[in-house]
Amino acid sequence: QEVVSEESEEESNGVNLMEFSDEILLHILSYVPCTDLVLNVRRTCRKLATLCLDKSLTHTVLLQKDYKVNKDKVKQLMRDIGKEIYQLNMAGCYWLPSSTIDHVTRCKNLVKLNLSGCHVTSLRLSKMLSSLQHLRSLAIDVNPGFDASQLSSECKATLSRVSELKQTLYTPSYGVVPCCTSLEKLLLYFEILDRSREGFMLSGQLMVGESNVPHYQNLRIFYARLAPGYVNQEVVRLYLAVLSDRTPENLHAFLISAPGSFAETGATKNLLDSMARNVCLDALQLPKAWINGSGLLQHLKFNNPFYFSFSRCTLSGGHLIQRVINGGKDLKSLTSLNLSGCVHCLAPESLFRKAEDDIDSSILESLVVSCCNLRHLNLSAAHHHSSESIGNHLCQLLSRLKHLLSLALPVCSITDVGASVEKPPSTPNLVPQTFGRKVRIGVQTYPRNLGDQTNQKIESSVFWALMGSLRFLETLEIIGSSFSSAMPRNEPAIRNSLPPCVRAQSVGDSEVAAISQLTYLQSLTLAQLPNILTGSGLVNIGLQCQHLRTLSLANLGMMGKVVYMSALMDMLKHCKCLRDLRLEQPYFCAGAQFFQALSHCSSLQRLCIVSRSGTLQSDAVMSFMASCLEVIMCHMFMGESLTVCKNLQQSIVRSFQAERPALNVVIFPLLHEDLTEVIRDVPMRHLDEITLFKSRVAEEPPNLWW
C-alpha cells in the first residue's frame, strides 16, 4: 500500500515524511544499511522504491559492520543492484562462508573492494578478479595454503591494473603483490605467528614459487604494521629488500609500525640513505631502533607533512624541535602526531634526564604553536610532569589546539601541580601496590545528579579548563604511564602490575567528571586512575555524553575491590548509543545487577571483560544476551573454572548463533595456560578493536584506508 494517502494526511496534523524533498529523504536514507534499503525499505511504497535505488545510495555498499547480513542477503543484494555497485566493503565479515564471495562477480563495475577478514581461497580469488576488469583498489587476507600459481591470466591482468592494495598476511608470502605492477599505495599487515598450532617453529622464508619481485616503481605510500614475533620481521625485510635497491621517486609516505626491537640492517640503512637523498616525505613512522642514536631525521626532507609517529623512540624535545618541526616552520599541514612512549620528547635533552623529571614547557609551546592544526595527538605511555610555573601547565598549553578531535594523555600529566604529592599519602584511599585479599571498606555515596555534584567539582583545575576548551573532541584516552593490560598479545596473562606514578595519585572522580563537558565524545578510555573513590564522574559522563559509542575502563581505584560498580551501573542506564564496552578490573563481579544495568544499552554490540579473580553469574549472562538483541561479541576472561566457562560459552552459542550469524563468544579463564591458543582464533576485527588493550589515537595516519 502507498505510504502517502489522503487518510493519513487528515488523521495527522504533523508533517508526513513523504512530503519531504527527495534530497532530504536521500540524506535520511543514507543512514540506513544498504541491505535494509534494498531488501526491505524499497518495498514499502513506490516513491521509496525509486529513491532506495538512487546512485548515491547504491554506489558504495558498506557491509563491514552489518552483523545481521548473511549469505542469502548478500546473494539477493548482488542480484538486485550488483551492476550499480562501484565500491564494496565487506571487511571483517568473518561469519560469511567463502562461497559468498562468488556473488561479488555480479558487480562488474567494481572499482574498490575490501575483503579483509573474509575467507577467500586462491581459486575463488582468481575466479572473482577475472570478472572485475575495472578494479583499482583491493584488500584481502593471505592465509596458509594460498598459492599464487593458481591465479589465472585474467586475474593477473586485473591485478596489474590495481593501484591500491591492502594485504594482511597470516603466512609467509608475497601474496598478490608481484602481480600488481601499477601499485601506488601498499598497506601490509603482518599477523604471522612464530609457532604453528602443533608447536613447531615457523620460518620467515617465502614459499616455493614466491620468487617474483614486487613492483614498487610507482609507489607513493608504503605502510607496514607488524604483530609481535620474529617471523613477521623476517618477512617484512623481504618486502623492503626491493625498496632498498631502488627507491621510488614519488614515494611520499613511508611508515613501519613494529613493536619491540626491530634492528636496523645494512639493507634498511641503504634504503633510508636513499630516501634522504631522493624523496620528500609527507608522512613518516619508523621502528625505534632505526631512529634512536642516528642523525636520520636531520637528513630527511619533508614537503607538507600530515602525519608523524615517533612512538617509543628516545627522541628528545630538542631534536624534535630542531630536526622535525624545523624551528617552528612549515608544520601547519601536520594533522596527526604520535609521541606515545616517547619519554623525553618534551625535554631539551635525554642524556642525563630521568623519565619522571618535569617537562620543558617551552618545547611543548613550540609544538603547539607550530602544529596549530593538529587533529590527533598521542602523548601517552610517558611521564609528562608539569612544573610549578604559572600558565605553563601541559593542559593549559594543549587547550590552544582548538581543532583536536582525538587526544591521548598519561594520567600524571593532568593533575594540578599543587594537588600532586611527592610521596603516597597515608590514607585508606591509597591504591595497594600489589593484588591482595579483598578489603572490606566503607564506600562513600555519590551525588545522583549534576546539581549535587557541582559543589564538589574543582572547576578551576587545569584539566577541567582543558576539557572545556576542547568542545569538539570525539576520542579521549587517559592512561596511566605504567599501566599494562593483563592480556598481552602472544604471551601468558600478566599477573602483577606496576604501581601508578606518584603524580597520578590525586587523579580521581573530579577529573572524570570534567570529561562530561565533551558533548560530542564518542570514544573514552580510562586506565589506572588511582584516586577513584566512588566513580561519581562516570554518571555525569553517561548523562552528558549522549554520543558515546565506545567505553574502555581499566584498573580504576582500588585493585582489591571494584569501588565504582554502583556508579558504573547508573552510568550504563543512560548510554543508549554505546556499542563497545571493555572492562578490565581485578575481582570484577559480573552478576545479575550489572547485567540488568547493561541491558539498558540497547545499541550494545560488543562486550569484553578481563578480570583476574573475577566472577560471573551464568544465568545473568544468558538473560542479558536474550534481552540485548544486538550483541554479537561476548568475550570474558575471568577467574572461573574452565568447566564453568566452557558450559556458558556453549550455552550462548547454542541459544543465539542461529539468530545472530556474526556471534563470536569466548569465555575462558584468564590465567589458563592455553589462553594464547584461544586468542589466536578470535576474528582480527574484534581482537584489534576491543579485546586487546592499546592506545589507538594517531595509531595510523587518518584516512589510510576507506
UniProtKB/TrEMBL annotation:
One GO BP: SCF-dependent proteasomal ubiquitin-dependent protein catabolic process
GO CC terms of this entry: SCF ubiquitin ligase complex
UniProt-listed Pfam families: F-box-like, LRR_FBXL18
Domain F-box: 14-61
Top-level taxon in the UniProt lineage: Eukaryota
Regions annotated as coiled coil: none
Entry protein name: FXL18 protein
Species per Swiss-Prot/TrEMBL record: Cardinalis cardinalis (Northern cardinal)
Taxonomic path: Eukaryota, Metazoa, Chordata, Craniata, Vertebrata
